Amino acid sequence: MKIKFSQILAHIVLILGVLLMVIPIWLSFASSTHDTVTILKEGMQFGLGDQLTRNYNEVLNEKGGWSEEVTAAKMFINSFIMALGIATLKVIISAMSAYALVYFRFKFAVPIFWLIFITLLVPLEVRIFPSYKIVSDLGLTNSYTGLVLPLVASATATFFFRQFYKTIPDELLESAKLDGANSWRFFIDFLVPLSKTMIAAMFIFMFVYGYSQYLWPLIMTTSEEYWTVVMGMKIIFTESYEGVALPRTAERFAYIILSMIPPVLVVVFLQKWFIKGLIQTEK
Amino acid sequence: MSFLELNKVTKIYPNGTKAVHETSMNVENGEFMVFVGPSGCGKSTLLRMIAGLEDITEGYINLDGILINKVDPSDRDVAMVFQNYALYPHMNVYNNLAYGLKNRGISKEDIEKKVNEAAKLLQISEYLQRKPSMLSGGQRQRVAMGRAIVRSPKIFLFDEPLSNLDAKLRIQMRLEIKKLQQKVGVTSIFVTHDQVEAMTLADRLAVINNGLIEQLGTPIEIYNNPKSMFVAGFIGSPQMNFLEGELKNKTLTSEGFEINNVTSDFNGPVILGIRPEHMSQTDKGLINLSVDLVEQLGSDNLIYGEIKNKKDFCFRCPGSQIIKKGSKLSLNINDNNYYVFDKSNGNRVN
Q1: Which of A262, B51, B278, B303 is deepest in the core (most CB within 10 A)?
Q2: Is pLDDT of A280 > 60?
Q3: Tens digits of per-residue pLDDT, A79-124?
Q4: What is the pLDDT of residue A196?
């Protein structure tokens, strides 16, 4: 069989891309199996070391923080709860608001949509002080509600759901109406199952978004009980050495590898669904 | 009181377009009514008003003795078959049929019984577990009808359900719809732009143009006795020939010939209509046709030619008759089967 030059070139580019993605992860993983001294002395490691069990055990069980009470495991759980809450609520709220915008004929539906859309220009970082003020006035600092609630509105997801609903033929709604479906039933029985793939995709994006939040949890939480993974990374696993706090590099690498697991799991699990939905063209 | 009564029903869209003008008609129980007209004539709007998918601007609609103007579509007990079928893509055939019943709170056993009956009637029992995307056009069409039948509604509404099928299947489904309607006996309204469908399916036919019913009657009545030039041109295939002329003291002059003793007191410019099938060849006929084109359909020949100033004049003769391009024919109108219309408004005057 003759292999074309362009095919070889394409594969080279693909392989380079894969390496670019995989090497840093491998470096982190390999480094996480050595001890800190080796890493500090010789830099990041390509080969595997013998400290795997010790490092990971340390990371999962060691109590850190000022009060020496918060563990990495607790922070994973916090981040997971925060990301799950944000992703779930974002999907539900955006799907419903898009439903209202597309199917209910009310005045100013279009301006309202654009108003929602414009909020894309105002990310959390810009409105962080007013947001903090509101949340703190409501007494929601140091709570899961406070971590999740200010982030649950999503213009992006609303936009995507709106565009999707617009492609659904009107006859489907009319036919459902004649079959006795009210607006609520139409949403649950038709739009939700039809937008399964969309929901899976949005959920993935929003989960990762929620999981990687840094600034908001940092400002929001004073109690270590609510620390999340990304903010915790900087705070725990430091070692005092002649009055200077030195990072415990090996444990940090282990921590990074562990922190990747929840979002990876979500992607892996939902991707099956996502691809299944793409293959079965239901139109 | 009729089963379905439309009284001065009018539809004006928010942008001011008047789609349906004060339309009144009655449909009897068990009748198969067809709305036919060119696209954009308001026939679908009328149907959708009966279904409750469009608001009624003025007038009222009575179904089975109940004023349904303000009744929700789901409570009207009507079923509709859409042009693109509007099957529920994420449900299998069984659930497509069962969905309307579920919403009406019918017990599971009853639903199963009804769905199976309907599926059997439409010969879709084998496909009950399939999704619509795995069905052919004809099967989808059947599922769409099954969804209507299974609810045993007061009235079936068909919105051009055959136009997405290929020609052969269309004829087959046309026959099946008619048979099915006769078997089930449910009052039906069928919207189409295809005059052959209209003629073959209808017990009665409403020819609609520009939001007005031009004529209402049985297919044969309308074919034999069109009240206006529009109806005459719309019903019948190939289309009726129209010639310009002048009617004066019961004598009609047109394109090089005269017809005497026209049964009309009208005087002035007129349009003369002659159906291609209402003429025959003679030695010294009224109309002299020089043949430009012959379409051989097997059973019939369609001859197109020129008479004086009129081009593409069509004449239909049996397929056995051999006529060559370029020849000259002499034609007579059979049994005075011609129609005279007032040129100014298209109304029939003879």
Answers
A1: B303
A2: no
A3: 999 999 999 999 999 999 999 999 987 888 889 888 888 888 888 8
A4: 86
Subunit contact A282:B100, Cβ cutoff 8 A: no
pLDDT value at residue A282: 45
The answer to whether A135 and A150 have CB atoms below 8 angstroms apart is yes
DSSP annotation of A13: H
For the purposes of burial, counting CB atoms within 10 Å of the CB of B317, is it exposed (0-12), middle (13-18) or buried (19 or more)? buried
Determine how many CB atoms are found less than 10 A away from the CB of residue A268: 9
Name the residue of chain A whose CA is nearest to B88's CA. A172
pLDDT along chain B (350 residues), means of 10: 89 91 92 93 93 92 92 91 91 94 92 93 91 91 92 92 89 91 92 92 94 94 94 92 92 89 90 93 88 91 90 91 89 90 92
Distance of CA B2 to the CA centre of its chain: 22
Buried b / exposed e along A171-182 (16+ C-beta atoms within 10 A): bbbbbbbbbbbe
Closest in A174, A178, A282 to B89, CB measured: A282
Using the beta-carbon criterion (under 8 Å), do B100 and A180 form an inter-chain contact? yes
Q: CA B231, CA B44: separation in Å to the nearest integer?
A: 18
- Chain A residues inside the 8 Å CB shell of B73: 174, 177-178
State whether B84 and A171 contact (CB < 8 Å): yes
Q: Which residue in chain A has the smallest CA separation from B101?
A: A179
Task: Calculate helix-pair angle for B137-149, B108-122, nearest 10 degrees.
Answer: 140
A244 bridge partner residues: A241
Of B74, B147, B151, the CB nearest to A177: B74
Which of A175, A187, A189, A198 best probes binding to B when mutated, by most B CB atoms within 10 angstroms?
A175
pTM: 0.81
Task: Give the β-pairing of B58-63 and B66-67.
Answer: antiparallel
User: If you ran DSSP here, which 8-state letter would residue B54 be given?
Assistant: S
